[in-house]
Amino acid sequence: MKKLLSSVFALLFVFMxxxxxxxxxxxxxxxxxxxxxxxxxxxxxxxxxxxxxxxLHPIHSLYGLKVSGDLTVxxxxxxxxxxxxxxxxxxxxxxxxAIESPVGRDGRAVVVLDYVQGAGIQNLPAFFTAPNANxxxxxxxxxxxxxxxxHLTQVYYEHNITPGLVASVGKLDITGYFDAxxxxxxxxxxxxxxxxxxxxTIEFGGSENFYGPGARLTWWPVENVDISLGAFEGxxxxxxxxxxxxxxxxxxxxxxxLDKDGNYRFxxxxxxxxxxxxxTANPNDPDLARAENSGFGLSFDQYITDTLGxxxxxxxxxxxxxxxxxxxxxxxxxxxENYGRPNDSVGFAYGATFxxxxxxxxxxxSTPGFKSGTEHYMELYYSxxxxxxxxxxxxxxxxxxQYVINAGGDRDAAKIFLYGIRLQAFF
Length: 427
Description:
Layout: H1 2-45, E1 60-62, E2 65-80, E3 89-103, E4 107-117, E5 150-162, E6 165-173, E7 211-222, E8 225-232, E9 246-255, E10 262-271, E11 293-303, E12 308-317, E13 324-336, E14 341-355, H2 357-366, E15 375-385, E16 395-405, E17 416-426
Antiparallel strand pairs: 1-2, 2-3, 2-17, 3-4, 4-5, 5-6, 6-7, 7-8, 8-9, 9-10, 10-11, 11-12, 12-13, 13-14, 14-15, 15-16, 16-17
């Protein structure tokens, strides 16, 4: 009997010890899970982002830093319906590397390096140019550095002031915070033509590539509304930083008609001057270098189905200063999920840019026989995802077609047909 009781007590003791151990283990596991959730949240809050606020994939950790980037190789040929061709095609390559370091719990410091080689096709008829110039026309991926070196394009600090308030200060890409669009805003993955990457009627501040010192503030007063304010140096050269500023404000409504995501952005901008009058409505009038320019516009994107989205942009600016005073563009984006290619996409865009009266008067007086017309621009691309690539990850091949009528608003300009390909790798 004693042996039986001893055995029972021994079994109870072992069971109680195991139960206590199991309880301790469960408590420890819960603590580990809690720590992992916190780490995951902190990592998510500090991930490197691109100009649209989307993640640059993949994210690599390197001595506490987060590194990401992409490589773009493009080649285009051109066929002019009339006129001689001195250059029938050209290639270009660019690479971007973003390096981010967390600063405390709510801040991050970001450095972006850019490398470009190849100036693209050089003998095309002149497209419309804004007062601060858009010199690359058919390929927004070609920067205007005029050399093959590595350039420090962005250096900034970003801080989450509150859960609904974020500020950035430093050398920034202005287009990364304003005039975004879900379907027409990235020359790496969407349309290549400059006119479909950002609204050409915005005389963005900064350098020719829209980089410059400044600050932006974005506030989310309610869940589906955000407001962004920005102040930047006009010419991006860190000289007379507070003279001739570029100011911009944007209001974005995130709506879901028929339970489909959409963004409806409205913005106003103002610029107090520019380095010279070369690309203004009258390049011979030096006063236009100091003239104020302003405008307003909109950028809409809306999913119609799970695979089809449409977009629209429009804007106006002062015809007394700019070569063109109105622009409208739109198109669609369609993913290949219905035919077994969910990571492929096809996009089509059409844009019309209208010459301002002052620039028309200048052209007619300086160029005998000049006839003005609306510049019509069309582009079609197909993005083919190789292997297991997804949007923003892996390797993509994109055939690209562009067609331009009345380039630069000149009715006698040759019609231009551009055909090319873009190879895009994210690393």
